[in-house]
Amino acid sequence: MERGAAGGRRVDLELMRTPPPKERADAARNRAKVLDAAAALFARHGVESVSMDAVAAAAGVGKGTLFRRFGDKAGLAAALLNQRERDLQDAILSGPSPLGPGKGDETVPPSDRLHAFADAYLDYVLDHMSLVRMSETASPGARYRIGAYGFWHRHLMILLDRTGGAVPDGEAAAHALLAVLGAEHLTAMVESVGRERARAAVHALFDTAGG
Amino acid sequence: MERGAAGGRRVDLELMRTPPPKERADAARNRAKVLDAAAALFARHGVESVSMDAVAAAAGVGKGTLFRRFGDKAGLAAALLNQRERDLQDAILSGPSPLGPGKGDETVPPSDRLHAFADAYLDYVLDHMSLVRMSETASPGARYRIGAYGFWHRHLMILLDRTGGAVPDGEAAAHALLAVLGAEHLTAMVESVGRERARAAVHALFDTAGG
DNA sequence: AGTTGAACGGGACTATAGTCCGCTTGTTCC
DNA sequence: GGAACAAGCGGACTATAGTCCCGTTCAACT
């Protein structure tokens, strides 16, 4: 995974307070070179068909550099998604309702926020399917280890617990809902029934699970 | 994947009618040797830590033999699960209700059969977690390519469509329910909330989705 | 039983992810 | 500006999945 001030994955707001260890100039340069090269290669040939060797060569850095900085191919994909992911998380934390909490005095029912999340998250995943898929499935269990999963899970859990006793176990239900939003599963579902019906099915499940 | 009479995966009853191509005697011998060796190694060291080289060596066959017969590591895992999977499929197709259809004149509501399926499938996966996980995640999308997925999907879809219009799109809903039963997701969920709460969450979703 | 063609066997070979460690380069502090 | 030390660099190295191809073995047919 990334290090340094500019690359921290948004995991927990508390953790963001650790002082920026300051990234060395050459490291920053190489990080940019790698991300540019990876973006270009992935766009041209598809994420699956690009080897880490190829990325390193195109970026003009050694393999060691690539892996030390990004950990593995999933980490590289995650770094490329970083900005979009942050945008979505920011919108959830502090944006307008129904996706975000809105201004202090307006109240939106949790069910509206659940559906808004489903829509926004589906947009995010469907727009970057191959990168998200790589970041989730490059190694077994990768999806559940990265910090972002914890963020989505906590958000859903809080909303489900607010539905007024309708959901007996928000923590478990949040996992179940996220299973349906997994890139691997969405890929298969979209291939089978198309985007519209897949989206509708997700909403139907969010409906029954939490309002 | 396997070939020959003894190894056909249960996919579609129609396809079972293709004449048995007859497995050669030496092939059958080697198949048994490989399955025995793999079962022993997997049990002793865990599925993840056993390489295909090790299986080939322990079975006393070459790598080529191993891969031609089983395709990949997922195929080997699937072959080891074959009997249990067939048992479950048989119980669903022709066993007693509520899991199976029961004798001709008794009628069981689809919702009972849905919950019976959830329970039986959870038992199956939880009892063989690492093998199922290997068979589903060894290569990206593996789960959705193997025939068994189609079987579970069709079963759920038929039941959902019988719930009397409660489910507008049984085909899509069946995919969503199966997402929650994926080995990868169940592993994470059980680790997070334990078996009991995970099972309850699955039932809650089956409840709301189909009765 | 002999012939023959196809299926099988097996190990060398390739491709790729990921590791390791001695060398180089920045940064910091005097 | 220079020394010292940490951080970063990079390519050789390992491990493993999966491929290929040719010699061997089986089984059907005469």
UniProtKB/TrEMBL annotation, chains A, B:
Domain of life: Bacteria
InterPro entries: DNA-bd_HTH_TetR-type_CS (IPR023772), Homeodomain-like_sf (IPR009057), HTH-type_TetR-like_transc_reg (IPR050109), HTH_TetR (IPR001647)
Any Pfam family the entry gives: TetR_N
DNA-binding region: 51-70
Keywords of the record: DNA-binding
Residue ranges of domain HTH tetR-type in the record: 28-88
Protein's name in the database: Helix-turn-helix domain-containing protein
